[in-house]
Amino acid sequence: MKKIDLADTHDYGVEVPPKSRRRLTLDAHLVHTAIEYRGDRSFPVIEFLECGLPLLFSDFEFEVLTKEEMGKKFGETYPDRHLVRLREDVYDGAVAGDPFSRMTAAHEIGPLFEHEGIPLALMRKEASRSVPAYKSSEWQANAFAGALLMPACKIVGLTAEEVSERYEVTITAAYTQRNAMLKEAKKWNLPLL
Predict the structure, then answer these.
(1) Average pLDDT of 58-69?
(2) Total-model pTM
(3) What is the Cα 157 distance to its own chain's centre?
């Protein structure tokens, strides 16, 4: 499998209505409940893209495009059109269990649930470092993806290394999600899967 080039591609996305990590985590839990995912194995992200989302959105479209067609973008989502696109190497990586590719696929699912119906005028305003994270479309997509791939109630008692291995995510994603859950879990009273 070819390694994906991660050259400085950080994007703050666009400014969107605020969503807390708690709300995004609960939304991911609703997805888990809807598909009867118990968190005892890695989340079936490609199966969910190909089979689950068409059941939730009758007009859902999923496209895999070449690197030439996508350029530097790993994926893109059009929430109001219920369209998700992944770059071919990212799709292939996610199918093969590559942690970065799996997170990218999950990242593209988030806006379908979180950003549908946001007024176009708001979506034109690019987010920057000055926009609080909870108003950044990219932060929200990452927080949702983390919660989707690493169920909050299942990771609190694990090390980041165990989370990374069990849920097929990068060690960085595992540290980020685990630390966020350790910080918040007690006050959230998270539902158990």
Answers:
(1) 97
(2) 0.86
(3) 22
- How many other CB atoms are there within 10 angstroms of residue 193's CB atom? 15
Long-range Cβ contact pairs of 17-24 (< 8 A, separation 24 or more): 17/118, 17/122, 17/135, 18/132, 18/134, 18/135, 19/114, 19/134, 19/140, 19/143, 20/134, 21/134, 21/143, 21/147, 21/180, 21/184, 22/184, 22/188, 24/110, 24/114, 24/140, 24/143, 24/144, 24/147
Tokens of 144: 């949702």
Query: Could you identify the residue written with the tokens 């920057």?
Result: 128
- pLDDT tens-place string over residues 128-157: 556 788 888 899 999 999 999 999 989 988
CB 21 within 8 A of CB 135: no
| Cβ count within 10 A of residue 65 | 17
Which residue in 53, 69, 73 sits closest to 61, CA to CA? 53
Whether residue 45 contacts residue 23, with contact meaning beta carbons closer than 8 Å, is answered with: no
Residue 78, SS3 per DSSP: strand
Identity (one letter) of the amino acid at 139? W
What three-state secondary structure class fits 15?
strand
> CB under 8 Å to 173, separation ≥6 — which residues?
99, 103, 146, 149, 150, 164
